[in-house]
Amino acid sequence: MAVTILGIESSCDDTSAAIVQDTQLLSNVIANQDVHKKYGGVIPELASRAHQSNIVPVVDTALKQAGKTLADIDAIAFTRGPGLLGSLLVGTSFAKGLSISTRIPIIEVNHLQGHILSLFIKDENYDNPPEFPFLCLLVSGGHTQIVKVTAPLKMEILGSTIDDAAGEAFDKAAKMLGLPYPGGPEIDRLAQEGNPDAFQFAKPRIKNLDYSFSGFKTSVLYFLRDRMKENPEFIKNNLADIAASVQKTIIEILIDKFEKAIKQTGIKNIAIAGGVAANSGIQKAISELADKIKGKAYIPPRKYTTDNAAMIAIAGYYKFLEKDFAPITIEPLARYNI
Ligand code: KG4
Ligand code: ZN
């Protein structure tokens, strides 16, 4: 018998609901919150309010698009954390309320595990689940980790950022350039036209598999400040070159440690997940790295790399197989390790 899961994601600024039947995606509805754009970042209070008004129509639409009703749902999977607490509370409380009224069991999902399991989503155009074991470079707005995955729910963190995440590095650099939030896609777009070797920025010197982006961020800040003093038009006149150089440096920082992890573990199945995995430069770098090590690269479609409920529903499916249900007293967690 096929298992049908409703997934709910509300950890940051997107409200999303999805339906999967086993690993086959039936619907994935995302309501983006434009309200944060004018502030240049996510305002937690506004995010919670927007989730509150979006969640009922988003879940309703996901069910309709999948051709399902609540009577078809075997479990409700929701993001427990990590994320903004007020945002997580909306999804968690909604899942709990729905469970009480329908008697459908709930499954709590770690958002980061969800990002990695997005690689297992199947749809009409995509069906390329990684072979185990694989190494995943998990790069999002809040996290940057190298994760060894030996089974759908068996994950081990080999390295992590000690300060900013890769997405934050993109977003902060973009903000310095006067680009709108989120800056990652803007830099990606501008970088296509620029010279990645035009400018050099600092890279960290950390011995283990951990990441750091704070030195890089400071080097971009000082570089721009000095050049703008000489020429107030500097950013405007060199935008594409700066974007391309910023992107190249972030990718080199990411790939350097990832390659080290491949060497240390001998694992040659490599994958990428999380919002920054949408970056065209990083996708190219991962493919080239796989060729270099004679391994295999797994890159999910862009729509599954940024926050979405399909990945939460898939994670819910694997937890359903283990009968890993959550009690109704469950609470969200702002910090939550894999
Ligand atoms: O995974 P995600 O949607 O949310 C979190 O869980 O954090 O990741 C969002 C991050 C943002 O920092 C955004 O700038 C970045 O992913 N991002 C990109 C691209 N698309 C999204 N960064 C670089 N290039 C992109 N194309
Ligand atoms: Zn995310």
Please provide a written account of the structure:
This protein has 338 residues and is an alpha/beta fold. It folds into 2 domains: 4-125 and 304-321, ATPase, nucleotide binding domain (Nucleotidyltransferase, domain 5), CATH 3.30.420.40; 134-299, ATPase, nucleotide binding domain (Nucleotidyltransferase, domain 5), CATH 3.30.420.40. Helix content is 43%, strand content 19%. The protein is built from 10 helices and 10 strands. The protein has a 5-stranded mixed β-sheet with strand order 3-2-1-4-5, sandwiched between helices. Strands 8-7-6-9-10 form a 5-stranded mixed β-sheet, with helices on both faces. Strand 4, helix 2 (85-102) and strand 5 form a beta-alpha-beta unit. The radius of gyration is 20 Å and the shape is globular. The mean pLDDT is 97.
